[in-house]
Every structure is written in C-alpha cells, then in structure tokens.
Amino acid sequence: MNRNLMLGLLLGLASAAPVSRLEGKPAPVPIGSLSIGMHTALNATRATIMQWALVVDGAAAQDECDTPGRDSCDCTFWNGILCSNPHAREDVRTMACSALSRAQSADGMLWRSPWEASAQNSTNPDFFSRDQGLGTLAALTMLRSNQTFYAPWLSYITSHKGYMCPGMWDCRLTMPFWCTFDKVARFGDITEPSPSLMVPKLGAGVCNNDHSYVYVSTAVDAKGSALHLAALDVYIRRTISDWDAVIQAAADKLHSREPLNPFFQWLSTGASDDLGRLVLSQVPMYNKTRGSERKQWSFCRDDAEQAYKQSMGWEFVFLIDHLLAAPISNSSAV
After folding, report:
1. What separation in angstroms does the CA of 13 have from each of 20, 158, 166, 203, 210?
2. CB of 301 within 8 A of CB of 63?
3. pTM for the model
4. Phi-psi map region of 63: left, alpha, beta (phi>0 left; psi -120 to 50 alpha)
5. pLDDT of amino acid 79
6. Please, what is the angle between helix 3-20 and helix 245-257, to 10°?
7. Half-sphere exposure of residue 276, counting CA atoms within 13 Å on the CB side?
8. Measured between alpha carbons, how far is 61 from 212 in angstroms, rounded to an integer?
9. Do 278 and 265 touch, CB atoms closer than 8 A?
10. Looking at residue 322, what is its pLDDT?
11. 265 exposure class (CB count in 10 Å sphere: 0-12, 13-18, 19+)
12. How far apart are alpha carbons 293 and 278 in whole angstroms?
C-alpha cells in the first residue's frame, strides 16, 4: 500500500475518534423553513440570475468557456451538481442532465465538457478527475434509471482497471470515493463498482465506517476546493437519505469552518431567512458594460476570497431551488 495513503488512513481514523460513537445514531435531515417574503425575494433573484447566467453549447458554464480554444471549464462538475437537484426547475434539469450525457464519448468515458467529448481532446491533461466524478455521482442520484449513461461509464472504468480517464492518478477510485460510488449505485439499484477497483484494495467492508471518513474530510481538508468536495460527500448522502449524527456533525463542521458559505450553512441548518439574507447579499449585480466576470462556482472557494463577487450565477440557482422547496413559515419578515 502507498505509504502516504496508509498515513492518511491512520490520521483519518484518529481524527474521527470523537464522532465514531455517533455512527448510526439517528438524526433528522435539517430542512428549515422560509417566510413568504423571503420566498418571494429569492424567487425574484433567481429570475434575475437566469437572465445573465451563461450557457455554452447547452450547458451551464462560465465566461471564457465560449472562446475559440474552448477550455474545459469543469462543465461536467457544475452540470452534474445542477442535475442532482430534485427541486430544480425543468429547464435547468433538462439542460444540466443533457450536458452530462453529451460529455460522454462512444467508449463510455466521461469528459470535462460536451465539446471535449466531441473533440476527443482536452485543454486539461487530466481529461476527467475525481472532482468531476463526484459531480457525476451526485447527478446519478437523479439519472440512476438512465442505463444508456451509467452502464457504459461503469464498463469503461472496469475495462480500464479502475481509471475514469487514461492513466491519471486523479481518475482512480480511491477510498472513500469508491464508498460514495458504491452507495449511489446501491441507492439507484444499479450495478455496483467492483471492490477490486478500489485504491487501496481494502474491501467493501471498509465502507461500513464511511461516515467517519466523510467527517474527517470536513475537519482536515484545506479550505476551498478540497473542502467543497467534502461538502459534496455530505450532500450526496443527504440526497440518498443516508443521514445520521456523524453526517450532521460533518455538516456542522463545514459551517463552522466557513460560516459565510451558503451551501455549507444549508447542509448544516436547512433553509432559514438568515440563510436567505446571506444568499441575497452575495448574488452579484451582473453588468456586462462594466466587464463583470461570471467565472466562479463560489461555494468551492475560501470565504476570505469573496469569490461570490465573480459568481457564474449557477451555484446560486442550485441552492435557491433547494431553499424554495422548504416549507413556508408563519413569519412574513424578510
């Protein structure tokens, strides 16, 4: 076994000790509620974002995705997350889920964007990655019945000995990524990945404690992209109703580490007018004549970066659709 992987596992188990006693202990998924005033305000803000959020080749995208060089722009990642939302409106769901299908080549491999799949080439040396894979697994909670999408993808991974793209470490099914993959497959009643594809080969039983591994990621992963990936592990388990006190603790840890991240707050507390106000304060006022930039999925950046000032808009559409599905409270305040 790779020495760094072994050290990581040992450190992870040590970090998980404080919450291991909570494993399997029931905890309600935080739903929350909104006042009618906040519901109305968020709905109006969503409509405004939809007027300026960028679509390239029928996929949610960011500025500079529509340049002659066609950078990958991680479209599979963003559209996978958008596709996963059971509360997404039909226009967004159709666009996002279709983008994933079009990012798949005839051999079953997934690429970072539909145009890279079409060109069979990428501006990124990693044609795919575990980041993109997590976005895809999130989408599979909605696309699980689409065997024309999933079966070829799993077949590609299996025939390439656990690689989601040719020969790149970032495309391997490491543990706990394999555990998330397996859980999504079980949830969807679709073919599970073979334990032989896991790196290191620890066997499927290692996933019996996967909630503790998720908690560790939320506690120790670097702020920014890595912590957002840990949040996606929490989000996927929320989506498949795999929630307990450990996953709640993981969501709370996310929120405590990045208190101004609206996605992390929603995972921890559910909908509220306080969260709605945070969202409304972060959605930028897009102005094309001033050269506004739509380049960030801001939830995957450190609070200190204030990346929401360059938001691509789509991350807020994703979260607002979740918030608008919350019950209406008796309060009328915004």
Report:
1. 9, 29, 31, 17, 11
2. no
3. 0.92
4. beta
5. 97
6. 110
7. 27
8. 34
9. yes
10. 98
11. buried
12. 21
